[in-house]
Amino acid sequence: MEQVASWAHAPATLHGPDLERRFGGLSRLYGQAGYRRIRAARVAVVGVGGVGSWAAEALARSGVGELVLIDLDHVAESNINRQIQAVDTTLGQAKVLALRERIAGIHPACQVHAVEEFVEPGNWPGLLAGRTIDALIDCCDQVHAKRTLAQWALAQRDFAHVCVGAAGGKRHAHRVDLADLADVTHDPLLGSLRRRLRKEGLAPRQGRIGVACVYSREPVVRPDATCATDGSLNCQGYGSVVSVTATFGLVAAGAVLDRLAAGAA
Questions:
Q1: 158-169 as b/e: b if 16+ CB within 10 A
Q2: pTM of the entire predicted model
Q3: Percentage with pLDDT > 70 across the chain
């Protein structure tokens, strides 16, 4: 009986994955044209930690055809509480490589480019290696990198760009929201980005900026006094919980999927 059961589930192994069966449900949600745009899309995710790893997973599970994953970090045991590729067997492995291996079992036809680098003002968009992308999700936690990515994205024509704020120090997933950078509150990281863009003349002094942001309206929860902190706004210094970090990533991926399906990018 066990042998019969194994053969009953064998077609994907014997004949290759049925990608239409895997991802066809999206066509009933976005329509055939939107579904085809998503399947053909090329998306870059910068930072594949507690937020970006979930965004990349969501894009892969939605059938996106090509992903560029950018991050220089390696999987550490402290990542296991919130990063989807962080398990015992990936400890010490480059985060982008561990995530690429995971995606291969979800969407084997997806082209995944793993770039082991951090975004800096001097290396973007060179890290794309000449690849054209349809969308960008910024999940990094350094304001100078976010400024570089935002400036570049704003210069693109009708480009799908989502900038993710700080998920550290937040407990309540239901407080996560999506808004233009001009309207973001309760997020010092995005507030710093907004000030820089406006001060440098890269964004209007008043009104809409044109950068879609994922953020939480919840005030930052300061670390317990008995816990060590590096004084930063990232998840190393502030506490973090997967229900919030994953929600940030999924909201970002959902916003990009909507834009791609609509043909706005």
A1: ebbbbbbbbbbb
A2: 0.89
A3: 89
